[in-house]
Amino acid sequence: MGVNFWHRRRVFVTGATGLLGSWLVEELLQRGAYVTCLVRDWVAESALVSSGSLAKTTVVRGALEDYDTIARALNEHEIDTVFHLGAQTIVGTALRSPVSTFEANIRGTWNVMEACRVNAKLIQRVLVASSDKAYGAHKQLPYTEDAPLLGRFPYDASKTCAEFIVSSYFHTYRTPVAITRCGNLYGGGDLNFNRLVPGTIRSALYQEAPLIRSNGKFIRDYFYVRDAVAAYLHLAERLPDERFLGQAFNFGTEAPLSVLQLVQRILRLIGAKALKPQVLNEASQEIPRQYLSCAKARRMLGWQPQYTLDEGLQETIAWYREWLARHDS
Q1: What architecture is the 3-187+223-254+290-306 domain classified under in CATH?
Q2: For a Cys staple, 177 with which of 126, 164, 171, 230, CB 3.0–4.6 Å?
Q3: pTM of the entire structure?
């Protein structure tokens, strides 16, 4: 497995220019895969675009809501592996516009799954990105994979619904699929500066007080994107082994932190501890406490993260320091 597994494999990635997608596509290219990317909006500052790596892939212009485009791409490019990462992922956007979120995250998922069903003779493995948000609020933590999916708020509910659709395709049509549920991803290349990690890093590098939308007490898993890429590839390489088909796996650090603790960690690593975060306490319709057990991934996949929080944050800070310097110049 590993590098040789992906050599000349034909891979389709939705959400390719997002945080996880950009890093995953880069790694697949390094491992010799032929990568086809579904791209809706052309974001010139996306890491995948600005690095020149997107130009090394086949780009299919279209949206998740466009079934015909997805089905055509899988067929014409003879895809054998699908990473369905594309989604509307911003909680605030979902609250303002639930319908467009449902269209992308739910309709988009059934479009991908139906396109895989129609092209079943080609498709050998499908990985679908869900989220810890699909679990909804539970008194019993950490979440394990057998916990019920109880998403209530728009983004959370979209992920819960998407998982039921994926499960239906597996149980009805034996589509060779597995599901990932990750903690809050962070890493270089995330240009949504309203998110906690990039927003805090940018503020600290500019010597400005970081903004905290919530009361600072929300508990989350924070998962470095390079560990997430390794987890996705590790799981995908095990499909279509029957032991892993139709399964969901949690991936994270199992080291939950409060929002305020994470902000203070970033300020310490940047050397800006004197900055005092501004706590807005404006966040609503979000789950106060969420974190994952990764015991199943350790047991069945032999997987564990390779980066500590400080190591991941240090690499992320270095990325933004360089990016901001180029952007400002």
Answers
A1: 3-Layer(aba) Sandwich (3.40)
A2: 126
A3: 0.95
